[in-house]
Design goal:
Layout (H helix, E strand, L loop, with lengths): L3 E4 L2 E2 L5 H12 L4 E9 L4 E8 L1 H18 L15 E10 L3 H18 L4 E5 L10 H5 L2 H8 L21 E5 L4 E7 L4 H11 L4 E2 L1 E2 L2 E2 L9 E2 L6 E8 L4 E8 L7 H14 L4 E7 L4 H14 L8 H12 L9 H4 L1 H5 L12 H9 L7 H24 L8 H36 L6 H42 L5 H26 L5 H35 L1
Helix pairs in contact: 1-2, 2-3, 6-7, 8-9, 13-14, 13-15, 13-16, 14-15, 15-16, 15-17, 16-17
């Protein structure tokens, strides 16, 4: 697995698109880095940039962007709604895959040291990169903002972690750290009052508000202000007015979406706003969002309506967007905002992105791939799709309202199997291509011959494992299919029957591919294990299909 980290620097410029382009240009100039998103805000005068790559490339790109931002942005003339202290206000690194938080924090410290030493810029570490607990929190570090830092930086307790202990009038100071994935999320209100928006923000943010009685701050026995915690853990929030849209917003950072998911934050703000005579009109995401945050939100709102959650990813995202009004201010395009979609390699989904017509044309062409393995995977996909359809129809059947959750669970299981099988359509063709590529390797020397033989055997095993996984998943799908034949909407029982026929065909077809590739595998132990497992699954699929078909025939005869 590649080591991938994400970098989300926030630059104190959201209005001059030419300057923003120059900053993102130096990021894109670094080999091995992929720019995912650029999100400028006029009212905040701030741009959130997102890019990913392997650690060394990301660190280099971040350094060059911080250098360029310092050249282009003059903090002495900057104004905007968002708290800020420097041209590159904050630069977090986030582990995405193949790398731990500890390793990511070490890279953040490496970047901070280089920025401090080479650019002579005051740098503070935060979150997981900061070893001093009292200096981990970004809002505490940034308190006083740019204007107040000329004095703050001179205090011994606020000496920068790297760089000079003198505030740079033009570039300000910057904060670099490592953290979990953070969602920047704004909720729109039907008011223009910043004070009222702040009241709601204090209601929900974890830090809450200072307790007051008769206008006076209440203190504890130690003389410290007593705090009233907010209702949402791992949430930072403030209220502000956005002149661009003429509305006030609750601006939130969800710092741990496992603790407080997006949809819970939205619903809680709705409730607290209503208690204060306000109404939420919509919301907006700043930067990118993990796919799971939207699909879980979609499921949450569907469950509130007693509707099945076993629907497609697209349907779940559409439900999340509509329910939270994510497109109220600007269009919400998942393909541009969901991080997993931006990281997808189109080459890995070449077949399933095609139209049905084009797929059949390519299958019928003189090329040997896609072949029976890919078709088996796709037939299996169609089989579980039919069963999932029956489950969803049953969840909405008139008179079966009390059973919606039962069928929703089956539909969700079916949808999970459908997604896995669909990906195997392309995986089977890639496995075949890997065999062809291995046969094309040079074989002039003994060393080259050995490498070629090893590559052929590795690819051959993969070409057996992929259809074997198709068989496993299709056999699992028969549980859903049989449940729908027995208990689903009687008017759709024939669909369950066709699903069973598809699953059987997929299992038998995939096993043919396992067997034909086994002929080229020299690992006798591996071949024996795979053929034994495949033979057993083939027998089970035939028995299951016959049993399901009898149920279907009996149900049809009753109609």
């Amino acid at each position: 697995m590649k080591r991938i980290i994400e970098c989300v620097p926030n630059f104190s410029e959201g209005r001059d698109l030419e300057k923003i382009a120059q900053i993102t240009g130096v990021i894109e100039s670094v080999a091995g880095v992929r720019l995912l998103n650029v999100d400028p805000g006029k009212a905040t005068n701030r741009t959130v940039v997102t890019f990913v790559g392997e650690p060394d490339a990301v660190i280099e790109a971040a350094f060059q962007a911080i250098r360029k931002a310092g050249e282009l942005i003059d903090m002495s003339t900057h104004s905007g709604e968002h708290p800020r202290m420097g041209a590159t206000d904050v630069c977090p690194l986030i582990p995405i895959s193949g790398i731990s938080m500890e390793e990511t924090a070490a890279y953040a410290q490496q970047l901070a040291k280089r920025v401090g030493e080479e650019l002579k810029l005051p740098v503070y570490l935060y979150e997981e990169a900061q070893p001093i607990p009292a200096r981990k929190n970004l809002s505490i570090i940034r308190a006083g903002e740019y204007e107040g830092f000329f004095k703050k930086i001179l205090q011994p307790e606020w000496k920068p972690d790297f760089g000079p202990a003198v505030m740079d009038a033009k570039r300000g100071a910057t904060v670099i750290g490592a953290r979990d994935f953070l969602i920047a999320y704004n909720v729109n209100l039907n008011t223009t009052s910043t004070r009222r928006a702040n009241a709601v923000a204090f209601d929900v943010r974890e830090a809450g508000r200072v307790k007051r009685e008769n206008g006076q701050v209440v203190k504890d026995v130690h003389g410290q202000p007593v705090n009233i915690p907010g209702s949402l853990k791992s949430v930072k929030a403030i209220g502000w007015f956005i002149e661009e849209y003429g509305i006030a917003q609750i601006s939130m950072n969800l710092t741990n979406i496992r603790v407080t998911p997006l949809h819970i934050a939205f619903d809680e703000v709705c409730e607290r706003a209503r208690n204060r005579g306000l109404r939420v009109t919509g919301s907006e995401l700043v930067g990118l969002v993990p796919l799971q945050a939207l699909t879980e939100a979609g499921k949450y709102f569907l469950r509130k309506q007693n509707r099945s959650v076993g629907v497609s990813e697209k349907t779940l995202i559409d439900m999340a967007v509509r329910s939270m009004g994510l497109d109220e201010l600007t269009p919400f395009k998942p393909e541009e905002r969901v991080i997993e979609y931006l990281l997808q390699d189109p080459a890995e989904q070449k077949l399933i992105r095609q139209s049905l017509s084009r797929f059949s044309e390519e299958t019928a062409s003189e090329s040997p791939a896609p072949g029976g393995g890919s078709i088996s995977a796709y037939v299996g996909t169609l089989g579980i799709s039919l069963a999932t359809m029956v489950a969803n129809l049953s969840a909405h059947k008139k008179g079966w309202d009390e059973r919606w959750e039962e069928f929703s669970d089956w539909a969700e299981k079916g949808e999970g199997l459908r997604k896995q099988l669909l990906l195997l359509v392309d995986a089977d063709t890639r496995a075949f291509d890997s065999i062809m590529a291995a046969f094309g390797l040079p074989k002039s020397t003994d060393a080259e011959k050995n490498l070629r033989t090893q590559a052929i055997q590795t690819a051959t095993k993969l070409a057996m494992e992929v259809p074997l996984q198709v068989m496993r998943l299709c056999l699992q799908s028969m549980d859903v299919i049989e449940a729908m034949a027995n208990n689903g909407n009687p008017n759709s029982v024939s669909d369950a029957g066709v699903g069973a026929l598809c699953a059987r065909a997929a299992v038998l077809g995939a096993f043919m591919n396992v067997r034909i590739n086994a002929a080229g595998c020299t690992d006798a132990t591996f071949v024996r294990r795979v053929l034994e497992e495949g033979s057993q699954m083939e027998k089970e699929a035939v028995i299951n299909e016959e049993r399901i078909r009898k149920v279907v025939d009996q149900q049809i005869d009753k109609l």
